[in-house]
Amino acid sequence: MFKKETEYALRGLVYIQIQNRSGKNPGIIEIATEIDTPPSFTAKILQRLVQVGFIKSIKR
Fold first, then answer.
1. Pairwise CA distance, residues 14 & 17, whole Å
2. Which residue of 16, 27, 50, 56 shows the fewest CB atoms closer than 10 Å?
3. Distance CA 5, CA 22 (A)
4. Domain parsing of the chain, residue ranges
């Protein structure tokens, strides 16, 4: 079993990758809604993934 944070990170990464392959760049609210996670916690997790280089962030 994974910690919730790890599970949310993996689900978020998978969702982002699927959307990127379709040429889309999902935002935090969309990601959180689609993977059924709290938006603020999702943002915190994804921010860490940006800091370590797993994903890139862009401003809209």
1. 5
2. 56
3. 26
4. 4-51
DSSP summary character for residue 41? H
Which amino acid is residue 22, in one-letter code?
Answer: S
Close Cβ partners of 38 (under 8 Å, ≥ 6 residues apart): 32
Q: Residue for token digits 């915190």? A: 44
Angle between helical axes of 28-35 and 4-21 (0-180°, round to 10): 110
Q: pLDDT digits over 10-32, tens only?
A: 999 999 999 999 999 999 999 99
Token pair for residue 14?
């998978």
Print burial letters for 42-57: b (CB count within 10 Å at least 16), e (below 16): bbebbeebeeeeebee
In the structure encoding, which two tokens stand for residue 47, read together? 């921010």
